[in-house]
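Q: Here's a chain of 119 amino acids. Please give me its 3D structure as tokens.
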Amino acid sequence: MENNLEISLLFDFYSQMLTSTQQEAVSLYYNDDLSLKETADILGMSRQGVRDALSRAKKSLYTYEENLKLCERFKKTQTGLEKIIEDIQKVSVLTEKEDVRKLSQSILDTAQKLYEQEV
């Protein structure tokens, strides 16, 4: 069974590449945590229609990620920025030189801004 969080993350990156029906179905089912029946009622579709739309959407999302790797790059960037922030905080604490502390703080501020933009 796929991880709902993974589908939601892939949806954040690739939702615009899905059909409008697929977008609505994925949003309701995965992001809003509605059942197939609730999703079908809202969309005016059968449960099987929703299941088919979700199945096609998931296949598309995984195919897009396999080819474009945007989510993978995002996760690597996020992990790298977390490591930079952690390490520069250590450098700042360990040094007694004011110029190194100022430079460390500047690097830390930049890394934190980048991290916040990514999240």
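Q: Can you summarize the key feature?
A: The two ends are 26 Å apart (CA to CA).
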